[in-house]
C-alpha cells in the first residue's frame, strides 16, 4: 500500500517512534534499513524483532542490498509500513538505486560523532551526510528535521544554515 512514515533515526525503534509517530501515521509493520554490520548481528536483529512483536508490529530488517528488492514489493502489498533507516546514507543509496520511497523524509536522532556538526536538536551531520541530503533534496524529497510530530522543526534549507553556522 504505502510507506506512511520514512524516518532517519540512529536509534531505530524507540519511544518517539513507538509512542508518538505511530499515533499520527498509520502503519502495520516496520521496515528497518540498516548497515551491513547491524544486519549481520543476530543479537541486535533479534532485539529489534522482539521490540516490534511487543508492539504488535512485525519488524523486517534489511541491509541496503536486500531493501532495494524488498521495499518495492512491500509498497505493492496491502499493508502500510514505517520505513526507518539508521543513517541518511541508506536512503541515499536506495534512491540512487531507483527505490521510490515517497517525497518526505523525517530526520530523528543522528547522534554526535567525530567530524559531525549540529544541524538540529540531536541531529548531527557530516560533510558526506550533507551531500546525501543535497542529492535527496534535488530529487524533490522534502527533508524535515523534527524529533516529534508536534514540533515545528526545520526544513532542509533551515537545517543547512544551522549546520553551516556551526562550521
Provide a concise account of the structure shown.
The chain has 167 residues and is an alpha/beta fold.
How would you describe this structure to a colleague?
There is one protein chain. This protein has about 170 residues and is an alpha/beta fold. It has seven helices and nine strands. The strands form two sheets. Strands 3-2-4-1-5-8-9 form a seven-stranded mixed beta sheet, sandwiched between helices. A two-stranded antiparallel sheet has the order 6-7. Strand 6 and strand 7 form a beta hairpin. Helix 5 crosses helix 6. The radius of gyration is 15 Å and the shape is globular. The termini are far apart. The relative contact order is 0.18. The model has no long low-confidence stretch (mean pLDDT about 90).
Q: Helical amount among residues, as a percent range?
A: 40-55%
Largest sheet: 7 strands, mixed
Radius of gyration: 15 Å
> In what range is the share of β-strand residues?
15-25%
Could you outline the blueprint of secondary structure elements for this entry?
Layout: E1 2-8, H1 15-24, E2 29-33, H2 36-39, H3 42-55, E3 58-62, H4 64-76, E4 80-85, H5 88-96, E5 104-107, E6 117-120, E7 123-125, H6 127-138, E8 142-145, E9 154-155, H7 156-165
Parallel strand pairs: 1-4, 1-5, 2-3, 2-4, 5-8
Antiparallel strand pairs: 6-7, 8-9
Amino acid at each position: 500500500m504505502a510507506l506512511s512514515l520514512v524516518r532517519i533515526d540512529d536509534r531505530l525503534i524507540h519511544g518517539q517512534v513507538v509512542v508518538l509517530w505511530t499515533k499520527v501515521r498509520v502503519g502495520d509493520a516496520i521496515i528497518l534499513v540498516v548497515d551491513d554490520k547491524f544486519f549481520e548481528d543476530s543479537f541486535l536483529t533479534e532485539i529489534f524483532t522482539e521490540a516490534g512483536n511487543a508492539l504488535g508490529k512485525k519488524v523486517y530488517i534489511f541491509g541496503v542490498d536486500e531493501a532495494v528488492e524488498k521495499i518495492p514489493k512491500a509498497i505493492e502489498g496491502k499493508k502500510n509500513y514505517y520505513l526507518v533507516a539508521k543513517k541518511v546514507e541508506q536512503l541515499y543509496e536506495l534512491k540512487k538505486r531507483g527505490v521510490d520511497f515517497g517525497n518526505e523524509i523525517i530526520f530523528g536522532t543522528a547522534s554526535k560523532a567525530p567530524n559531525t556538526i549540529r544541524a538540529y536538536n540531536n541531529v548531527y551531520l557530516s560533510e558526506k551526510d550533507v551531500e546525501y541530503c543535497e542529492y535527496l533534496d534535488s530529487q524533490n524529497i522534502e527533508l524535515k528535521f523534527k524529533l516529534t510530530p508536534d514540533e515545528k522543526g526545520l526544513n532542509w534549507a533551515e537545517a543547512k544554515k544551522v549546520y553551516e553556522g556551526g562550521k
